[in-house]
Amino acid sequence: MVRKFSLTNADNATWDFTDPVEKVFARNPAGLGLRKTASLMRLGNKQKVIDETYDFINKTFDVIFYGDTLEAIYSDYNDFIDFITVGDISLIYEIPSQSTAYRIAVLVSEITKTEVKDNGYMSCGLTLTPLSFWEDNIKNTLVVGTTSGTGGKAYPLERPYKYEQVSTLQNVLITIVGNMEVPFEVTIDGACSDPWFGVFKPDEQPAIGRCMFTGTYNYVYVNSDETEEEITLKDGNNTEVSHPYNYQLLPSVLDNQQLTFLTLKKGVNQLKFFLGGTFDGSVTIEWRNRYVSV
């Protein structure tokens, strides 16, 4: 098996660049490595790193459209244009030696169209500008506890997930295997009072970050993704609470902690949930490991 590239769009459609049936093939991939920008200060005959960041590197391909007739080639090209103009494009990368596929959100920033060659193909340069770093293609899901009266919850088979009993609510361990810190989603499904949760280094105090709310709720959802940062609260009647950001409980002393929109660090993270007395519900945590290069 060769490494495989494909695109997905907002319609959840997939464009496979290695399927001979499609008669569209991507070759000469570039920009799969990493590049770092650093600010340096010279101190005598040495330099000190003041700041450093990983750069977003454009991913480029030569896309080959081939067919038996000019009409077929141009038809495939127009189908491809229709596909990418739907928007919300991600590049999917599968490596033969690994079971995990990777994704990266991209903007299709350029396609250079050429003429059809005499031997029946057209080569077009494709430039993809990354909007994120590489991530697991499928979310990792960890479920803690069950919701009484439902016989448990059903989870999509394509999502890898682990299941834990409710007694572990103050000792939820998540290992981040990528090489970057990651945002995550938390869903608390069940009656809770003044709910809060924190991210800790295992068995250490204080918390690296805390997400805290005041009030009584049947449902709490927090998404800490940098481009989303979403909070949803539902009251005892399962009615969505307006202006949920107003119900954050912000401590008077920050101690350099993250607040509300937390991240998981590389390695082992300990999450602790405090939900106000007896909790008869479930907590679901979802995340994607992130990678500078794959």
Overview features:
single chain; 294 residues; mainly beta; Elongation Factor Tu (Ef-tu), domain 3; Jelly Rolls; nine-stranded antiparallel sheet; six-stranded mixed sheet; 5% helix
What would the average pLDDT be, to the nearest integer? 88
What share of the residues lie within helices? under 10%
- Distinct helical segment count: 1
Shape: globular
- Domain module tally: 2
What's the N-to-C terminus distance?
Answer: 17 Å
Give the class-level CATH name of the largest domain: Mainly Beta
Radius of gyration: 24 Å
CATH architecture classification name of the largest domain: Sandwich
Short description:
The protein has 294 residues and is mainly β. It has 1 helix and 24 strands.
Describe the structure.
The protein has one helix and 24 strands. The chain is mainly beta and about 290 residues long. The chain folds into two domains: about 5-135, Elongation Factor Tu (Ef-tu), domain 3 (Beta Barrel), CATH 2.40.30; about 140-290, Jelly Rolls (Sandwich), CATH 2.60.120.880. The strands form five sheets. Strands 1, 2, 3, 6, 7, 8, 9, 10 and 24 form a nine-stranded antiparallel sheet that branches. Strand 1 and strand 2 form a beta hairpin. The longest helix has 15 residues, at about 70-85.
Topology:
Blueprint: E1 4-8, E2 14-16, E3 24-30, E4 36-43, E5 46-54, E6 59-66, H1 70-84, E7 89-94, E8 101-112, E9 121-130, E10 134-136, E11 140-144, E12 161-164, E13 172-176, E14 182-183, E15 185-193, E16 196-200, E17 209-212, E18 216-223, E19 230-234, E20 258-259, E21 263-264, E22 267-274, E23 282-287, E24 290-291
Parallel strand pairs: 11-12, 17-20
Antiparallel strand pairs: 1-2, 1-7, 3-6, 4-5, 6-9, 7-8, 8-9, 8-10, 10-24, 11-23, 13-22, 14-21, 15-18, 15-23, 16-17, 16-22, 18-19
